[in-house]
């Protein structure tokens, strides 16, 4: 047992893809605070989300982060095979903040909680500016104060007009400044940025001009086939076929939201330093998923390309190495076990994630040979760090989608532009990843595991 366990500031954003950070070789976006956390800590550069069974990927993804478990073993709902919108976490599942709370941490939440109120209530001792929805206008945010009863009825809501990112940061800073308990704290700050509507305040809104924004090399005017989710809300946020100038503006607005959030995170970091507790605080930054914004002709997160499933995961402080970017594979269900290991908190026995600390200490070069992701009943993905396979299905429920596979060599083609699924060079990795994906689906309880696809057309 450590003499004094670290405080934890856990920051999670909405829609922030891995590459949209300056320290990760993006030469356009300005993220000096996140860059500082990268340079002062450890970044897990191959972290992928488990996925989701609903277009609102944020709810199941946040459930995976907070439970360290497969969504098939975590989410409430007897009709998951029909992919209904479910945000509830089973009442018998123990969450990360709940485990820290039971271990002696004072747990406090600020911002978005897109899962059920019961799981929130059993996880936190306190909270402020609590938002129980998926999205809202950033200057019209329906929030609640902490409710000791845990019920959070709708009539308790009130509208805050302060921009959401500042609103949540204000509450987080106030908590840090006021906290004087001897127990370590776990502060969970969940932003709704950079989720649309991407309406960053000035001066951030004017920081990026669309003429200065390069199009990604995988920009496409349209997706080449029906991936099973071409009509979701996110895909209607830009005209079809995609217009290059419109996409550049979307990216400019996206970067503005991230830079504003970065600046606000800096206020929390500064509050920790002024309080004199920065050195004994673990700061974690991650996101619930990424976003396409014109890549592959898509706009949203309802797909399994890298822009949508690969997320930033940065941990800084409490003796962690500085400036290390780790390429070993990891999943967002591994975040809880890693935080628990750093904080000397016992994991629930049913946790399926794996601590990433062996990667940090270099005791092991890899803890996973393959990472996989799911999307509804229409897409599955497996990747081994070099090769990536995406399996598409025709939905038995909606009839949408296409039976086919794609295979990419991410080492040579990180933007996933060249499908090698029918090339001789892809035969071995295609067979190997197909088998690995099927095994993973069985182990995680995927309802498609027993499916026998009728074809794998090219």
Automatic annotation (TrEMBL):
Signal peptide as annotated in the record: none
Transmembrane segments: none
Entry annotated with the keyword Hydrolase: yes
Family: Belongs to the sulfatase family.
UniProt cross-references to SUPFAM superfamilies, sorted A to Z: Alkaline phosphatase-like
Ranges where the Sulfatase N-terminal domain occurs: 6-342
InterPro entries: Alkaline_phosphatase_core_sf, Sulfatase, Sulfatase_CS, Sulfatase_N
Protein name per its UniProtKB record: Sulfatase-like hydrolase/transferase
Pfam families, per the entry: Sulfatase
Organism: Paenibacillus violae
């Amino acid at each position: 047992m450590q003499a004094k366990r670290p405080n934890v500031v856990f920051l999670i954003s909405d829609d922030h893809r891995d590459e949209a950070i300056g320290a990760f070789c993006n030469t356009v976006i300005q993220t000096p605070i996140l860059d500082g956390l990268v340079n002062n800590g450890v970044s897990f550069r191959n972290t992928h989300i488990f996925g989701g069974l609903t277009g609102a990927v944020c709810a199941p993804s946040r459930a995976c982060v907070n439970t360290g478990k497969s969504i098939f073993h975590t989410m409430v709902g007897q009709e998951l095979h029909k992919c209904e919108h479910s945000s509830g976490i089973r009442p018998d599942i123990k969450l990360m903040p709940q485990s820290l709370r039971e271990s002696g941490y004072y747990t406090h939440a600020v911002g978005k909680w897109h899962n059920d109120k019961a799981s929130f209530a059993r996880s936190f001792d306190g909270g402020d500016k609590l938002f129980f929805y998926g999205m809202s206008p950033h200057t019209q945010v329906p929030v609640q104060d902490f409710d000791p009863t845990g019920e959070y009825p709708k009539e308790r809501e009130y509208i805050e007009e302060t921009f959401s990112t500042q609103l949540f940061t204000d509450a987080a800073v106030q908590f840090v400044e006021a906290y004087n308990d001897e127990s370590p704290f776990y502060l969970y700050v969940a932003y709704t940025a950079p989720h649309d509507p991407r309406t960053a305040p000035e001066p951030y809104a004017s920081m990026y001009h669309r003429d200065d924004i390069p199009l990604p090399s995988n920009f496409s005017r349209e997706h080449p086939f029906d991936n099973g989710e071409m009509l979701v809300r996110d895909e209607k946020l830009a005209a079809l076929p995609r217009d290059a100038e419109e996409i550049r503006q979307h990216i400019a607005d996206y970067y503005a939201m991230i830079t504003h959030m970065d600046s606000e995170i800096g206020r929390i970091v500064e509050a920790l330093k002024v309080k004199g507790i920065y050195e004994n605080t673990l700061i974690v930054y991650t996101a619930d998923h990424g976003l396409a914004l014109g890549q592959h002709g898509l706009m949203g997160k309802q797909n399994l390309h890298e822009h949508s499933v690969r997320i930033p995961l940065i941990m800084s402080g409490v003796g962690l190495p500085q400036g290390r970017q780790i390429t070993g594979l990891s999943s967002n269900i591994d975040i809880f076990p890693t935080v628990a290991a750093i904080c000397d908190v016992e994991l629930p026995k049913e946790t399926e994630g794996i601590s990433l600390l062996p990667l940090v200490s270099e005791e092991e070069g890899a803890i996973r040979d393959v990472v996989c992701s799911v999307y509804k009943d229409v897409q599955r993905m497996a990747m081994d760090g070099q090769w990536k396979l995406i399996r598409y299905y025709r939905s038995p429920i909606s009839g949408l989608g296409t039976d086919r596979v794609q295979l990419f060599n991410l080492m040579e083609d990180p933007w996933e532009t060249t499908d090698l699924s029918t090339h001789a060079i892809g035969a071995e990795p295609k067979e190997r990843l197909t088998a690995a994906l099927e095994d993973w689906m069985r182990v995680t309880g995927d309802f498609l595991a027993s499916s026998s696809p009728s074809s794998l057309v090219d």
